[in-house]
Structures are given as C-alpha cells and as structure tokens.
Amino acid sequence: MERNKVHIFFAYSDRKRIASLRRRLNDLGLEAGSNENQLLPEWDRPADPADIIKNCRALIFFFSENAVKSRFLMQEMQAAIEYAIERGKLIITIVENKDVLDNSDTLKYTLGRMPVFIPKDGLQSESDYDDIAAMIYDVVVGSETKELLYEKITSLSRIRYTPGVSKNLCALLRLLCKEVKRDFSLKSRRDTYKEILRSTEQLEQCDEHDYSDESIRLAHMRVDAIDEVESLIGSYDFLQLDLYLISLALKLNYLTYTIRKDAADTLSHGDVHGLGNLTAEKYVPAQEFFLRLYYSQMISEGISEKDHGQYPDDEISLILNLKSFLIKDRASSVFQPSKPEKKTAPVGEISDLDKQLYAIADYMRESNKLFELAGNSSLAADFLRCLKTSYDRLRKYSEIVGCMEVCAECIEHIAEINQMLEGIDGGSSGSDIVENGFKALLGFSIEGVDDFDVFLSYSHEDGDIASGVYHFLKTNLINPFYDKITLPELSKSEYEDAIMNAIDHSRHFAVILSDLKYLESHWVDLEMKTFRHEMVEGRKENANFLIIVTDAVYQQIISQNKQCLPIKYRSYEIMKISEYKNTLTDYLK
Fold first, then answer.
1. Mean confidence (pLDDT) of the chain
2. Closest C-alpha among 34, 94, 26 to residue 59
3. What angle do CA 254, 286, 182 make, to 5 degrees?
4. How many CB atoms lie within 10 A of CB 330?
C-alpha cells in the first residue's frame, strides 16, 4: 500500500460531500479510496477499521453536525482516533463549522491537542472542496517532507556538515511556519511553536565562517527562513497572557536578531560599521514590549524556581532562563552573544582525491533522473536498493577520507531513497537472489558500523508503530537503529551479524509491543536477550532498557502485576505508546 494512502471517516449522511472531496484528492494524486465502499459509513464496515488504520499513511475525520448528533458514530470515531494515535498515524480532523466544535464538549475532548481545520462554508461550496483538498494534500505531503528533512538534519549533524544542516533547517522552518498558520487549534500550534524554537536554535548555531559563494547563498536562505519566523512573533498568539508563549516570543526575537546579524555580516563581507547596534535597534522595542508582559505575568501568577504553576518542565526552563537571551538587559547594555572568530578566506584548491569523489558523485547524481522512470513496482524497489547501496559505499569512503561535501550529498540521497522505499513496500528487502546479484555487481563491502543512540526492536506486525517512533526520534535529533531504514541490503545469512553489530553499537534499547505474544518472536526474543546480557555483563553502562506498549497491553501488564512478563524484564521501564512522546527522549539523551 502506498505511503500517501489516506482514509476518510464520516457520517453516512455526509457521503455525497465526502465523495466530492475524494474526487478532488484523487485529482491531486492523493488516493483516498477507489470507491465509496472503501470508506467507513457509520453502520456499514466493509473492512476491519484496525487493518485500515494500520495500513494507511493518514486518517481524515470529518465531524459534521450529523456526525456529532450520532452517539454511536462518535464512539466509533473516538475508538478509531485512539487506535490511530497508538500506531503513530497522521490524523487530520475537519469540523464542519465552529459552532459544531463549540457546542460539543465530547468533540472538544476527542480532538484534544490535534490540529483542527474548519472550512469557510462548511464544506458546501466548490471553493471549500478545493481548499480542503489542497490543505489535506499539503498536510500529508508536508508530513513526509518534514520526516525527510529531520532525517537529513540528524544524519548531517552527525558528520558535522554545517552547510547541509543549515540548508535543511531553513526548509524545515519555512514548512513549520506554514503548518502553524493553517492550524485552528492553539493547543497543537503550541507544539509546533516548540519545534520552531528548537529548529531556530539549531540554525543560530550554523553561522557561516567565510565569504564564499556557498556561505552567501546560505545567508540568503537563513534570512528568508527567519523572515517567516518573525512574521509569527507578531501574531495574536503571542499577545495572550501566557508566560510560555511570551517567553518563546522573547527567545525567537533574540534568535532572529543574532541570525540576521550574522547573515548581514556574510552578505556585506563584514564591511558594515556599527551593524550590531543598527540591527539591535529593530529588535529591542519588541523585546521591551514582551518584557513588560513577562514581568507583569510572572507577578500575577507567582511563578518562581519552587512554584512552576501550570507549566511543565520543558516550558518552565525557558520561562526562568529569560536573562540568557536578552539583546539588551534592563540596564540597556548590549548583550553580546559568544561567537567564534570569523571569517576566513574562501576555500582553495581541492585535492585530486576529492576531485575523483566529486566526479563519482556527479555520475550518481545523474542516475537520480531515473527516479521518475522507476514507478512503484517491485522492480523499482530493487533498483532503488541498488542505488542506495552505492550511495552508502560512497558515503562511508568519503567520510573516511574527509570529503564531507560528497558524504553529505550521499546522506541526503540515502534519506530520499529510504522514503521512496517505504512508500513502495514499507522498506522490506527483496529476494536473496536480487540482493546477492546487487552485491556481486557492486563489489559490496562496507567496513565498520555507525553508533546509535537506541536500538528499536519490534515484530513485523508492529512495523508501522516502529516507523512512527523512528521518525519521532529523528525529529529530536536522536539517532536510532531501525533495520528497515538503517541496514544496507543484506542476505539473510548476514542479517544476524548486522543486528548483533548494531546492538553492540547502541547505547540504549527499546522494544515495541502491541501484543505480548510478540515477545516470542525469534528476532524480538534474540534482540532483547542479547542487549540485556550486555547490560548484565557490564558492557552497557548507564544503558536504559525500555518497553513501549499499547494502552491495552499496558493495562494487561499492570492488572497482572507484571507477572505476564518474563521475570527478567519486569524491572525495566514500561511506557504507553500513546504517551511515549512526553518522556522517551529523556531516557535517550
């Protein structure tokens, strides 16, 4: 099933409107079911909803007045949403109009922190259908693009290739700003703002160190990205008496100032006298405005080091560390952020070896034109695996000899190929014959193995959940081992050695379970025993062993006082799949 496949949940009385919406989605190239019987009317379920959710990229829920009035349908939709959340699916919720949302406490509770989209005319006019279809397309494709960008940023950060990190962060910031502007829910916008802050902080660390053409090009990209961020700071959200949002506005104001100052220095070749003061004058008034809100609200709410009020740890740390990111303090002295000395002269001649690697990369870049011809067949998957293996060999060799530009380009292409493979067949490998043929053709030999923050263990049936966990960790710049994406193409005889090597080079371990019977799976059992043995033997110091389960399995474990788990695993941390995003990264840093 294709990665872009979506499914729509709706009230049967809305079937004509959904049929019109589906046709527009198909016209955009986003398949939403081949006929009406594949959708889910409230009383006729042609397929198991669990299977449909498990195999879909995105779930669309249309809440009309008719849907909200049906108690049975609301229960069904609630159950579907809960299951989709458990499996880490992309959920798009469309509410007919604001009155439907305002008049239903059940609907408000069901939607929680999820983004909500409200058509202008209640999904009645032709323009409404066009707008909502375009929005759904942007969200689905944007979600895939965001996953890809985080994948590239994480991998490029590992090799410390700043130009590539900067370029992809700029693209990510523009995407996040677009995402937050179309979201009707302040709760979910708040989560996106946190992503924007984290990405802007990273971008601020990627300043250019010379006046080369590449640095000038990146400086323009950085300015374009922070222009988008600055436009958000002036929005209504940041005028609310919410200490976290006020503090976030202050931090973003400071970051955009430092980024713009650095970019201006690059674009002017440093030939701008008094640039810092000139730039600061633009940002200090906004800072002073938000400072007044900040101090009055701190007094009003009585927030202190001991009393955090309503704010969680990730928010209170920003609120209480205000002084560290002021452009001017209360005495109006200019705050000078610590920056490395810059700038150096443009890079000179490259070595003969680098020239050879660049030439190889050029040839492989030309082969990317075949992507469009490959299609979505099994043959296309075989071709892409072959190309991925080639890029992986070139990446490792380039990293060894220090040609980081070619290494970075390989990383980006590998990320793109991985996403295409997920779209074709979920990333599963082909036959031994095809794999061995590729290896013979390419002279396959890759020495060494990467280091991983966490090894993800799971049964094949939970591959969609594992994929969601993998992409969530990449979003937080954590490097997980996930065999479908991380491993090169291997024959079955070599697979176990590769798994053992990956466990050996992983700091932490997490097993994903939607059913306790998967503990008996050969690979899950082997991986759990091996990592635990390494911990017991003292070769995994400070390692965390995490068990991530669905809500149903969690209740089963708790109700049986963990006796349904093998005794050797009962002392390890157990967390719900529906809640892991709140705590998982704390165990892996």
1. 81
2. 94
3. 80
4. 10
Residue-level pLDDT at 95: 93
- Residue 253 is given by DSSP the state H
Q: List the structure tokens of 353.
A: 């070896």
User: Could you give the CA distance from residue 498 to residue 510 in angstroms, rounded to a whole number?
Assistant: 18
- Helix, strand, coil content of the chain in percent (nearest 5): 65, 10, 30
- Chain mean position to CA 463: 17
Closest CA to 199 of 258, 234, 149: 149
- Crossing angle for the helix pair 243-267 and 313-320, to the nearest 10 degrees: 60
Environment class of residue 560 by beta-carbon count within 10 Å: exposed (0-12), middle (13-18) or buried (19+)? exposed
Find where tokens 């042609």 sit: 46
Min mean pLDDT across 44-53, 58-67, 95-104, 213-222 is at: 44-53
Buried-exposed string 502-512: b where 16+ CB fall within 10 A, e elsewhere:
bbbebbbbbbb
Beta-strand ranges (E) seen in 130-171 are none
Q: CB atoms < 10 A from the CB of 65, how many?
A: 17
Question: How many angstroms from the chain centroid is the CA of residue 498?
Answer: 26
d(CA 334, CA 188) in angstroms, rounded, equals: 35
- By CB neighbour count within 10 A (0-12 exposed, 13-18 middle, 19+ buried), where does 391 fall? buried
Cβ proximity of 150 and 471 under 8 Å: yes
Q: Could you tell me which of 334, 328, 343, 345 has the C-alpha nearest to residue 289? A: 328
Please say whether the beta carbons of 410 and 362 come within 8 A: no
pLDDT reported for residue 42: 43
Q: Which residues contact 421 (CB under 8 A, 6 or more apart)?
A: 381, 384, 385, 388, 427
Q: Where are the alpha helices (DSSP H) in 87-125?
A: 98-102, 105-111
Q: Of 26-30, 135-139, 261-265, 507-511, which one has max mean pLDDT? A: 507-511
Number of H helices, E strands in the chain: 24, 9
Q: What is the phi/psi pair of residue 41, to 5°?
A: -65, 160
Bridge partners of residue 112, in order along the sequence: none
**pTM, to two decimals:** 0.78
> If DSSP codes are grouped into helix, strand and coil, which group holds residue 63?
strand
